[in-house]
Design goal:
Chains A, B: Its EC number is 2.7.1.39. The structure is a homodimer of 370-residue chains. Chain A is α+β, with helices and mostly antiparallel strands. Chain A has two domains: 201 residues, Ribosomal Protein S5, domain 2 (2-Layer Sandwich), CATH 3.30.230; 131 residues, 2-Layer Sandwich (Alpha-Beta Plaits), CATH 3.30.70. Helix content of chain A is 32%, strand content 25%. Chain A has ten helices and 13 strands. In chain A, the strands form two sheets. In chain A, strands 1, 2, 3, 4, 5, 6, 7 and 13 form an eight-stranded mixed sheet that branches. A four-stranded antiparallel sheet of chain A has the order 10-11-8-12. In chain A, α1 links the parallel β4 and β5. The radius of gyration of chain A is 20 Å and the shape is globular. The interface between A and B is large, with 39 and 39 residues.
Amino acid sequence: MAICAQSPLKPINLSPHLNHPTIHKSPFTCNFSLSSKPTPTLSTEPTPTLTSVTTFAPATVANLGPGFDFLGCAVDGLGDFVSLSVDPSVHPGQLSISSISGNASSKLSKDPLLNCAGISALAAMKLLNIRSVGLSLSLQKGLPLGSGLGSSAASAAAAAVAVNSLFGSPLTHLELVHAGLESESKVSGYHADNIAPAIMGGFILIRSYEPLDLVKLEFPEVNDLYFVLVSPEFEAPTKKMRAALPKEIGMPHHVWNSSQAAALVAAVLKGDVAGLGKAMSSDKVVEPTRAPLIPGMMAVKKAAIEGGAFGCTISGAGPTAVAITDNEEKGREIGERMVEAFWKEGGLKAAAVVQKLDRVGARVVSSVPR
Amino acid sequence: MAICAQSPLKPINLSPHLNHPTIHKSPFTCNFSLSSKPTPTLSTEPTPTLTSVTTFAPATVANLGPGFDFLGCAVDGLGDFVSLSVDPSVHPGQLSISSISGNASSKLSKDPLLNCAGISALAAMKLLNIRSVGLSLSLQKGLPLGSGLGSSAASAAAAAVAVNSLFGSPLTHLELVHAGLESESKVSGYHADNIAPAIMGGFILIRSYEPLDLVKLEFPEVNDLYFVLVSPEFEAPTKKMRAALPKEIGMPHHVWNSSQAAALVAAVLKGDVAGLGKAMSSDKVVEPTRAPLIPGMMAVKKAAIEGGAFGCTISGAGPTAVAITDNEEKGREIGERMVEAFWKEGGLKAAAVVQKLDRVGARVVSSVPR
């Protein structure tokens, strides 16, 4: 079993393509409709093809500035693990959470109905119509809670993919996203901008929810893209972060942000890191209202840009700051400046990591065949 | 001289690549800053390399639904011509408009300071620092006025490129756009979503004005894309069309339209005509307020979609409706349905044409060397 304890923002040494042959890959654009409550998509119940499986799902950066509530991407080397096994001691069709370890494990419920991984696993089991087998799940939190790095989505993604893999991976990416959305809607709202990239990897544009329509934006492999993630020791007041959002946006800001979102997507598809950073930095709608709630954030952004980052903004609802660059060493220097700015201007201790784009998404890292 | 009279929406048989070797091509993204009043960019005044030149600039479709005020594209086969010659009878450094013919020519002023082509030509002359040569301009309007097809931008683009070509084409695309913007700002507001594609061809995203930053979005050549343009005999009340715009946009609509603009750009770059149509059709901010001001517009959109179009919206501020498809013959059928709907539901006579994307932009069609 590949479970290992991870401290917050401590990158994982993980071979991303290992044991990852079975997850269905969606095409560039995929339309798929599901009712808000998953209903079984298989007419016959599948039998397990594995005895146990361990999966990993990456951290995600949602919003990326002007992509508020519809754009997110996955970040390599940070994430959560789920181990899942067929367990004769668990009632058929049911799920038991046997253990939770790692970050903030004491804060998480072992009741599957109150746990991100549990809710998502149960939703995937429902989609698969699992009635004859009981499952036991163990969650290893690599991500800190409430950091703006898609912690709940990573647990949900790892759990859904674990269930799917255990039964031969009949579910599509979109079905897995829908299972994960069951969890996300209970924890942080009905938003797919973390769960979709956590499952599918790369950059994902959420085009609509009814029906669920996701567009994977391929960032060219030849271009280098590094995320500098700087997480301060600060609890972003989630309710405040939502309440701070403007209810109405003036037409000039609407046009501006729309054009920047469009430019951001163009930059991703062209592999234009400078353009991506510029667009990411350009949000005039959400960032200006949220940044003041995170001590030092504007100074951190300034430090990142002055340090050579192509762009910087809040990751998700924060408090993590995300900057981008095309060079790992430069990324570390930028990270140091950002950590310093959090301390000097916000009075907050912070930790920085430099990570690549995760192009794979949630995946199997080890398994035991039947 | 290749000037020929064109009736409204009568496509031009034009060889687009003929005599078009000298216009500077901009890279994918180009940053360029100019003050609002063009100032000379050349230290020495260039001498004419041609005695006379005739240029063509295409019609343009601005907005494309959620790309309101920052996205536009050029449409092949419809546009304006400008003929320009060195004229010793014109005072050095000045411009004379010798003739205006074609659509609505009687409505247009021959005073260069009150004419789109004149203003743009003078701005280009200023950029080139022309003081020793007088020029004579003749404008051939192929586009109807106030149709939502970028009529003023086509005249301005053809004029700016004519001036540039006459002097050996030292100006860049961005400088030419800036010259055209001088005209647009006086006629229809400081917007580059018509003038930029009229000059540069293809799809253009206007990322910012200060500095002027344009992103050319290459639609893959292998994919077929046809525009069905249906222009009713109706004067869109420009002031009303602007006044109808909402001043404030609720957050859900802001997020929706931003995501559709982003999806539109992704579809363009991927050559995904269906995705492009879907995004183009999805505007919840501008179209719902403007469409009711054009009799029959919503029925026309419905007819287009029912006829198999991938999407349909208002071209620019209207009244032209634009639908897209991937097949010319299908485009003609869709056009017939749209014309019928304008008549049945709006009581308006309308004419339809089916045109391809213009990838070239304003260009020289004939010239006489010195």
